[in-house]
Automatic annotation (TrEMBL):
Domain HTH cro/C1-type positions: 15-62
GO molecular function: DNA binding
CDD domains: HTH_XRE (cd00093)
Protein name per the record: XRE family transcriptional regulator
InterPro entries per UniProt: Cro/C1-type_HTH (IPR001387), Lambda_DNA-bd_dom_sf (IPR010982), TPR-like_helical_dom_sf (IPR011990)
Amino acid sequence: MVNYGKYIKINRYLQKKSISELCDGICTPSTLSKIENNKSNINPKIINQILERLSNINIDILESNTNRLKPVTELFMQRLMLNLDRSDLMAKIEEEQYNYLHSEYILFLYITKLFSNFDLYHINNKDIDEETIDLISEVIEFGDFNELYFYNLLKIIRYKNTNNRLRDFKKIIDGDRYGWLNYFYCDTLFHNGNINEAYMGTKKCYELACENCNINLMYGCLLLLGLCSLELSNSNESVKYFKKLENLAPFMKYDINFVINYNLGATMLEKKNIEKAKYYLEALEANKYAFSISSFFVVHKLGYLYTELKEYEKANYYINWINEFVSKQDSKISNLLKKISDSLTIKLKEPNYLCNKKYQEDIEFIFQNSQSIFSYGFQKFYLADLEEVYLIQRRYKELYYLYKNR
């Protein structure tokens, strides 16, 4: 269904008309406000009168233009997200400019003008049409998720190495503080298993990050949204968020490809999708990891992967790394790390590892203690292993409670 409210609101703002001016003699300001916010079923005759006064069009024209332009619009956004050539689509969009201005995609049209044919990673300040970006800034609050994202990506480029942000310094700092507090709350929800709540909260947090042009917060939110989408088994959504994350790469000090490969690989490994896990985690092998907790998480996933694949040389390399790391830790952490190392060794060497009593005890210990030492996410990683142990031990009551508390 065409979003009449969005079209009317954007055009009213661009024409600098008040609600009272636009609805005078047609309907009450309250009715127009409801139309703009899509909150009520309004008589089509009223909508037609508003459209006629605003743009000299009617519902049929707006719907026809919107539906006809939808395929090109979606394809352009897909290519923009993947940083692919868009010149052929840009030519079509320019030909259809009049119809775009009389469709739901009016804001999208201005976004395309800003990006044009530029390589996403090599846009700089001189490439940006200041007049267009200022025009969009008046109505961007009505944009959808993608329009908001790409507009704010340009703001990041525009403000890079400048002091423009100082104009709204207090507002930005306050917004950033609120945004980070919300982000950490959502991150905690995610690691505690409240995935839906974390996802919804992070979407709101991401919008705030975009409004304040806070690239680090955008990065954190996009990563968390991608992981939430994976947990919710929405792979298309996760791909969308990770592609947006890649678009931030030129402005970040992090190796974003490393972050994405690790998180996707770890998630696939947890789901026992070994081939996909290998696809992502293999990219992390070239690195030589110093002894640290953050390195341990990567080494652990690589060791676990090659143990599953029975690639003995690689698996032993990472298991030995963990053993050496154990000696550098205090007793609380080292005990857990030793259990992890031992369980991998048994799994690697023994075909019937599930029947090994020490393996069973190690897995149960890891599951029971990893949340307090590391995180809920690390504990959840071992859930499938514990399920296997309980099944082989015929501990159906514990298995029932395990499922019940998931």
